[in-house]
Specification:
mainly alpha; 2 helices; glycosidase; elongated
Length: about 60
């Protein structure tokens, strides 16, 4: 399981630029998982897509309309 994601690195950099301290990519990744932005459940696991925000087949959020 990954402790960071491609989305967490720029988020951590942005938070650091805004004055947040001790926020790195791992903390940002945990935040995005906690708020439901990233779904770290493994493909094929029964919890993947349980939030209703993600496509159960790919594990990715739907594209904006």
């Amino acid at each position: 399981m990954s402790t960071t994601s491609p989305r967490s690195k720029p988020l951590a950099a942005d938070l650091g630029a805004r004055g947040f301290v001790f926020v790195g990519p791992t903390t940002a990744h945990a935040l995005t998982e906690a708020i439901g932005r990233d779904d770290a459940h493994l493909v094929g696991w029964h919890r993947l897509g349980a939030s209703g925000l993600f496509d159960a087949a790919s594990g990715e959020p739907p594209l904006p309309a």
